[in-house]
Amino acid sequence: MPTMADVARSAGVSVATVSHVLNDTRPVLPHTRQAVLDAVEQLGYTTNTLARSLVTSRTRSIGLAVSAISNPYFTEILQGVEASALEHGYSLLISDPHDDPEHERKVVQLLHERRVDGMIVAPSADPRELLAYLRRHDVPAVLLDRLVDTRADSAPPFDQVCAENTAPVAQLVAHLAELGHRRIGLVAGLSGLSTTGERIAGYRHGLAAAGLPHDERLVVHGDSASTGGERATAALFSLANPPTALVTVNNAMTIGALRALRDRGLSVPDDIALCCFDDFAWADLFSPRLTAIAQPSKEIGARAVQVLLDRLASPDRPARTLRLPCEFVHRTSCGCAQEAGPGSGPTARPADSPRRPEPR
What we know:
Distance between the termini: 76 Å
Radius of gyration: 25 Å
Low-confidence stretches: 340-360
Number of helices: 12
Strand content: 5-15%
Order of helices and strands: HHHHEHEHEHEEHEHEHEHEEHEE
Mean pLDDT: 87
């Protein structure tokens, strides 16, 4: 197996120069750098990662702890994390905390014991043990998607990357209100998650902006899961005066809601209008096609890696929170007869097309 010394002899440079090129630890003249890379390719040299980690105290690996990896949203985040990590020469160790606080702490400890350089974590609804461990061991970390509470006058305890949550849900509610709905139900997520709280706040803002009252009975938690979304939707339609429109706040609960509506013989959008938070690959294959808020999931993952690398390069820099904008994808499950471009308002229904019953 060729060594670094073999590469140095072939390129006509010192072993130190080869090290600087491979580890990117010092600027090297372009022609010298290319000579080293050519020698690496010609000889088939591969870096001894373990030996390098003993010298540099870095493994060039990132730990990723994300629950519900099978969820298309988190799968796309994973793709963004992996692509960005690979681009910067980092490998990825992945684990699923299963949204369980105790298991979450164990998972993070195991990743830490494998000497990852830093971690990207989507916290559970009760991240106290997780945060305590990260602080106690001074682990470079980025919190993903779900944020932790901070006072308005203080910086976050860790770097955080997520999508906007409040304004997009308010936009869905406003859209439904403009279509004439006065009783708009919300299938909310798991209690305790920042995403759940922010999306409920967006729902309330949307109602207030439309001059509609807030009825607590129209907000039911679906626990961010398909079965929970089905249960929550069933509860909403057990009310004496059920909603005429529904907002679901993640893709799993949207599937559950559609199942519950089907079981009750209700048609979307003729009997019930539906808008959802989280667009996904097959959302436009449903009939009708789902009006949705699309999160920039791959970009969220990629930005989380970049923020972590910035943290590794400058450990003392102030923590920051990045929020990425979402896109309103206007299709037909909301009750509009025609599709419109992203971010547009309601689409007029042709005069000769059938209309669903007036909202109650």
